[in-house]
């Protein structure tokens, strides 16, 4: 199929972008790696595509106020290779699994968040790190946590006249370690199940916080605080019973030709135990280095 007819504009200022979105018939275009297939299948029929790549402030990338701020037009490939992104190690772990290199050269970080695919890596990373998402629209600017931004499969808190301005990922502190893993049919495919972890320890190496986010397992990324779980067992095999029980609670996606619900629960439980253990080791290695 081919896209239904639409108008195309490329404003040069933020005010002009918001003007084009007024009325709710416009759709933001940045990288287009999610939007163009939707248009081609006629799952979306916007009257106007509003290309935001000419707005200078939406292409900003850098560390400020203790976090990595990624503007709406910043390519995934740029984040993958920018030294500033080293402030958020989990970005470096996850980015090579986001599609393929060619897709990351066009796709944007904020575009992936706005698309809100339940099996996508970047929304899960944002939720695990409690990233902050900045929106602007008729009601002005507002900032909301990533976990509140995604409301369901392909659904977010952004209104039809809103623009996602940026996402800010908090920089890793001393004593903070991370883990990332996913299982997919082929590298670059969407995950059958995936896990993102963040663990914090004090100077003595004792666990002070542990967080786990699963993706590809429900209608959105699912985040749980798992500090007591990690305090009771630290090694992968000791964690397995607890993560298997957690899988029964959080994995509710239906089975398909690629795997049953039970298979995804098994994947999630194994990956969760392994990545929590790895994140703990990394956190202890980083007690004095961040």
Helix segment tally: 11
Distance between the termini: 51 Å
Which CATH architecture of the largest domain is right?
2-Layer Sandwich
Rg over CA atoms:
19 Å
Sheet with most strands: strand arrangement: 4-5-10-6-7
- How would you sum up the major sheet? 5 strands, antiparallel
Overall tally of structural domains: 3
Strand content: 25-35%
Q: What gross morphology would you assign?
A: globular
At CATH level 3, the topology of the largest domain is Uridine Diphospho-n-acetylenolpyruvylglucosamine Reductase, domain 3
What is the tally of beta strands?
A: 14
Mean pLDDT: 94
Instruction: Tell me roughly what share of residues is in helical segments.
Output: 25-40%
Elements, N to C (H/E)? EHEHEEEHHHHHEEHEEEEEEEHHH
Instruction: Tell me the structural class.
Output: alpha+beta
The low-confidence runs, each spanning 5 or more residues with pLDDT under 50, are none
Protein name: Xanthine dehydrogenase family protein subunit M
Domain FAD-binding PCMH-type: 1-174
Keywords: FAD, Flavoprotein, Oxidoreductase
InterPro entries: CO_DH_flav_C, CO_DH_flav_C_dom_sf, Diverse_Substr_Oxidored, FAD-bd_PCMH, FAD-bd_PCMH-like_sf, FAD-bd_PCMH_sub1, FAD-bd_PCMH_sub2, Mopterin_DH_FAD-bd
């Amino acid at each position: 199929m081919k896209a239904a007819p639409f108008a195309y504009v490329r404003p040069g200022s933020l005010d002009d972008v918001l003007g084009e979105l007024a009325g709710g018939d416009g759709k933001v275009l940045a990288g287009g790696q999610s939007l163009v297939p939707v248009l081609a299948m006629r799952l979306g029929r916007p009257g106007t595509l509003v290309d935001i790549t000419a707005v200078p402030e939406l292409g900003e990338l850098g560390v400020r106020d203790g976090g990595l701020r990624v503007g709406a037009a910043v390519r995934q490939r740029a984040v993958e290779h920018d030294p500033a992104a080293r402030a958020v190690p989990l970005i470096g772990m996850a980015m090579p699994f986001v599609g393929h290199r060619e897709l990351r050269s066009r796709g944007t970080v904020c575009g992936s968040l706005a698309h809100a695919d339940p099996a996508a890596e970047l929304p899960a990373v944002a939720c695990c790190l409690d990233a902050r998402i900045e929106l602007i629209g008729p009601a002005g600017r507002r900032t909301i946590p990533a976990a509140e931004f995604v409301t369901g499969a392909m659904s977010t808190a952004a209104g039809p006249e809103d623009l996602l301005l940026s996402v800010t990922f908090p920089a890793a502190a001393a004593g903070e370690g991370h883990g990332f893993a996913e299982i997919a049919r082929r590298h670059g495919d969407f995950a059958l199940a995936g896990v993102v972890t963040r663990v914090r320890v004090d100077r003595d190496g004792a666990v002070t916080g542990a967080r786990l986010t699963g993706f590809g397992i429900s209608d959105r990324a699912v985040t749980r605080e798992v500090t007591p779980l990690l305090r009771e067992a630290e090694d992968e095999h000791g964690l397995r019973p607890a993560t298997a029980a957690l899988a029964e609670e959080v994995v509710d996606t239906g089975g398909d030709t690629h795997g049953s619900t039970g298979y995804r629960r098994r994947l999630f439980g194994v990956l969760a135990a392994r990545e929590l253990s790895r994140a703990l080791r990394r956190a202890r290695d980083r007690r004095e280095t961040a």
